[in-house]
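Lab notebook, bench 4. The sequencing result for the construct came back, and we need a structural model before the next group meeting so we can plan mutations. Quick request posted to the team channel:

Model the 3D structure of this chain.
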Amino acid sequence: MSEIEITGVFEDVLGMIYSAKQKAEYQVNSTIIDLYWCIGEYVSKQIDVNGWGKSTVKALSEYILSKEPGIRGYSSQNIWRMKQFYETYKDKPELSKLLRENTWSNNLHIISKTKSYEEKEFYLKLASKEKYKAKELARQIDSGYYERLLLSNGKAPSAIESKDMTGVLRDMYMLEFLDLPEPYKEYDLKKAILKNMKKFLLEFGRDFIFIDEEYHVQVGNNDYYVDLLFYHRELQCLVAIDLKIDDFKPEYMGKMDFYLEALDRDIKKPHENPSVGMILCKNADTDVVEYSLSRSLSQTMIAEYKTKLIDKSILQRKLAELYDIAEEEVKNSQQD
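Done. Here's the predicted structure in C-alpha cell form:
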C-alpha cells in the first residue's frame, strides 16, 4: 500500500475511535439525565404525598454525601433543581430525547433562562445540533438569540432545520464581544472580528468556515478586495461580507453584487450554489432596505450589528408587539 492509502486507512480507524468516544459520552450523559429525572420525580412525589420540605431534602443530601464522600452533584440545591427539571418537562414526553442529548448544565440554563416551551425546545435543539458547551449556550440565551430570530423572521425560528437562507442569515447580530473603542473605523471593526473569530462564528453559526480577509478578486486589469469571505457548509456557497460602520446606503448593493458576480464566475466551484452577500452595517432603515431590494434579484442581504447587548426585556416587548399586530391583522381579515 502507498503512504497515501495507509494514511486513509489510519484515518478510517481514527474515525471509528471518535465515533465510539462520542457514543460513549452520549450514553454517560443520557444515564446521568435519566438518574436526575428519576430523583426529581421521586422528590416531587414525596413533597406531594408526604409533605417533604427543604429541610428533608437537605437531610437527604447530607445522607447521600455521608454515604458517598466526595460525590458531586447532590447538594440540596441541585436536588431541588432535579425536582424542577422533572416538573418542567413531565407533561412534555416529546422533548425527552432532546433533554438527554444535552448536558445537565445546558438543561439548567434553559430551565432558568427561558419562558415558553417553544423557546425551551428551540434552545434544546440548537445546543444539541451545535454541541454547545454551557458557557456558549448561556451567551446565546443572554443575547436574546431566540427573540432576535423571531423578530428577524416574523415567525417561529426554523434555522436549525431549514436548508434555505431563512434563519441561516439574519438581519441583526450582536457583536458586543468585540470591545470596540469609540469612535472606530472599518479597519478596527475588521481586526476586532479577526481577533475574536471564534466568538464571531458562535454568533453567526458554526456552519460558517472562514476563508480569508481582504479576499482578492481580479476583474479585467483591476484588483478588488472582499472584506471577509466565508464558506457556508449547509448553504454550500461562498458568503461575502462587506463591513460598514455607518448606516446602510443603496449604493452598497451595487458593490456587493459586483463582488458576487466575480466570485461566481471565477472562484465558485461547479457543485457549489451561487454566492451570497451580506452587507453588515451599523444601522439599516427598513424602508431604505426594502426599496433597495424590491427590484433586485440579488443574493445580498442587509444586516445590522450591535456592539452592546440589547436588554432581553426590550426584545421580548418588541416580540409581544409583533404578536399583537399579527393577531389584530388576523381579526381584521376574519371580519372582512
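Confidence is low (pLDDT under 50) at residues 154-166.
Will bring this to the meeting.
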